[in-house]
Amino acid sequence: MKIYDIPQATKITINMVHNNKNHNVEATVITRYGEGILITPVMIGGELVDFCANGNFEYSDAYSDTKHMFQADTISRVDFAGTDFHVITGREILVNANQRRAERYSVQRMGNAIINKTSSISVIVHDISMRGFSLMVGKNSGFEIGDKIIVEFAKNESSLKMKMEGVIVRKFSIGGYNAIGCEIESISPRVLGFIMEKKEEHLKQAAKVSIKTA
């Protein structure tokens, strides 16, 4: 799906890093704008954002309930008919299901990460297991194997954020974007409960497939 195929009037929540801080900003799609989309003004702390090159957002098709995750390559301020708006360019992150290990459970939730207690970046929690997790980090780079990482995310919009700590053990690519694999070093009871929920969902789905193919 192209980013400009997102329907007009669609409300999106952009997870973005601005001035080295993570923010969730709501916006509405107005129309296609070149190879991107024109959206309502993006404001943080009451001020318009001039430019951002680190963000992502999710779009759910109202008819099929299919979720699409987009990496925002640029979020830039534009003057459109004498009024300030923003334009997002980017592309959908296409995930190959065969890239997942059997013991890992798909998450696909936006969050933020702090690497070595200094750099804050916007991420997508790709999958998780009892031993580790992987993150899609978009165009971000500069981290190395062995770096410490703290990740915060929520299982849905109405739930509390969960935190887990780990160490980067591998770097790879998902759908053309940078990704990292991490080994868990510290996990909260809330994250542990989330993993068990995902495991239960996985078992139920596997059972349904087994019944259909029997």
Describe the fold and architecture.
The chain has 1 helix and 15 strands. The longest helix is centred in the C-terminal third of the chain and has 25 residues. A 6-stranded antiparallel barrel has the order 1-2-3-9-8-7. Strands 10-11-12-15-14-13 form a 6-stranded antiparallel barrel. It has a two-stranded antiparallel sheet with strand order 4-5. It has 2 domains: 90 residues, Beta Barrel (Thrombin, subunit H); 114 residues, Thrombin, subunit H (Beta Barrel), CATH 2.40.10.
The total count of helices amounts to 1
CATH superfamily of the largest domain: predicted glycosyltransferase like domains
Tell me the domain tally.
Answer: 2
Terminal residue distance: 34 Å
Radius of gyration: 18 Å
Q: How much β-strand is present in the residues?
A: over 45%
Write down the secondary-structure element order: EEEEEEEEEEEEEEEH
Structure classification: mainly beta
- The percent range for helix content is 10-25%
The CATH C-level class name of the largest domain: Mainly Beta
**What is the CATH architecture annotation of the largest domain?**
Beta Barrel
What is the strand arrangement across the widest sheet?
1-2-3-9-8-7
Residue-averaged pLDDT: 85
> Could you say what the CATH topology of the largest domain is called?
Thrombin, subunit H
Using brief descriptors, characterize the structure shown.
214 residues; Thrombin, subunit H; 6-stranded antiparallel barrel; 6-stranded antiparallel beta barrel; globular
